[in-house]
Amino acid sequence: MKSANDRCVVLYDGRCSLCIKSAEIYRKSNKDSDLDWIDLNSSEGREISEKYSLDSESITLIENGKIKRESDAVVRLGEKSDGFTKIISLFSFLPKSFLDRIYRFISRNRHIFSGKVKGDSNGG
């Protein structure tokens, strides 16, 4: 297995319905993607998180050993897309601070938008 330094890894919250649905949509519209989607709560996800000292609150893209988080990760995923999710990259002209505020609002309220995954007693 390649290390996180040698592949494109997306860490996401596998206890979050919105996160799971977003990952599924991206995978379906980008069948030839070189991305490995890894649940932060899996053993591999925890291992990568510890290695890079990451928290579990935001989506994280690790590409060539470089870390992109929050809106930077989402916009980069749009740029890497060859499907309809490429439209996300159109927002890259907006200020990062504005995009991060939108990302954090959605992140804080993600369970309102899509509910919690059954069996999640932590609230996400």
Descriptive notes:
23% of the residues are buried. With 124 residues, this protein is of the alpha+beta class. The chain has helices spanning 17-29, 43-52, 70-80, 96-108, 110-114, and strands at residues 8-12, 35-39, 60-63, 66-69. The model is unreliable at 120-124 (pLDDT under 50). It contains five helices and four strands. The N and C termini lie far apart (29 Å).
Helix content: 40-55%
Main beta sheet: strand number and arrangement?
4 strands, mixed
Radius of gyration, Cα only, in angstroms? 14 Å
- Please state how the strands of the largest beta sheet are arranged side by side: 2-1-3-4
Report mean pLDDT, rounded to a whole number. 83
- Number of distinct beta strands: 4
Question: N-to-C SSE series?
Answer: EHEHEEHHH
Distance between the termini: 29 Å
- What proportion strand? 5-15%
Q: Estimate the global geometry from the Cα principal axes.
A: globular
Output the number of helix runs.
5
Q: Tell me which oligomeric state these chains represent.
A: single chain
Structural class: alpha+beta
Uncertain spans, ≥5 residues at pLDDT below 50? 120-124
